[in-house]
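The data layer described in this paper is built around a simple, fixed record for each protein. Such a record has a labelled line for the sequence and another for the backbone structure tokens. For reference, a complete record is included directly beneath this paragraph.
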Amino acid sequence: MSPAFIPGVQLSERLYREAVHPLLSRHFPELPHTAALIGPGSEVLGFDTARSTDHDWGPRLQLFVRTDAERVSEALAEHLPATIAGFPTNLVPVGDHGTRHMRPVGEPGERIRHGVVVTDLGSWLMERLGFDPRNGVGTRDWLATPTQVLAEITGGAVFHDGLAELEPVRRRLAWYPDDVWRYALACQWQRISQEEPFVGRCAEVGDELGSAVVAARLVRDLMRLCLLLNRIYPPYSKWLGSAFARLPCAEQLTPVLTAALTGEHHLAAACEAVAALHNASGLTEPLDTRTRPFHDRPYRVLGAERFAEALMAGTALGGLPLTGTVDQIVDNTDVLAHPARWRVMTGRW
């Protein structure tokens, strides 16, 4: 029988407390280390379920050391227990995509292909971010880093920070500096302003499918805007709705946004509701939250560019174009999954 599901962060903590830490105490008693579960994985954001256990899930963590990484990894392969909380510690690659699956060890004494990444913190940060926050975080670094990646670094859990370096990194990346936050919000409003009237225009010519597609794009942007207003890094599409559902405004806004998928009238109400959240934030002077006709056409729009302009008036980044962070510029997994590519996209900064 399969063991009862427990959240991956809890499983990783048990791996560290019950197996990795005792092993280090026996074999490497003088070795300072940091143990954490951060980076990719639904469990890092707290969205894992029993379904998640079928791949790239299991007893795993990062173990950051300054020396002896290879020796530590070898000792783990030789001495880790076969299971933690009933889950195999043996994570076997399957297929050509690097996916790993939990598999029981076949024979007593078999070396375990464990899920403990043993490395130095600087190398890991460079691989995940494309820069090392310990040396500072510049405007380009903030704008070039996808919000999903920032959520991964600041999510999860740190079980032990013996190097005293990871927790300061997480605090430094916990949220944008004020100017960058205002700029990201302004660019999000700008995205909304550019497509607001299209829902009505598509419907006017009988293109109901096109109208629904634009409405869905706008609802997605409004959801991301709500997360940004609440100082939460928006995750990628699979978990966007789950993250939104945790917001204090979700109970009020979910029915409004769901209705907005069906037509212009409901979208106008959704924009007005999110505009009220903007005013409640106090980031700018209160703005008129009522929708109005789009020029001399009958479509109702908020005029979201007004919110972008008000936010930019209070930021030192006024010289930047309203294009935004990398995931406001490009929506492509093969860019947003590779630091070298996402930093090229924002290279002008």
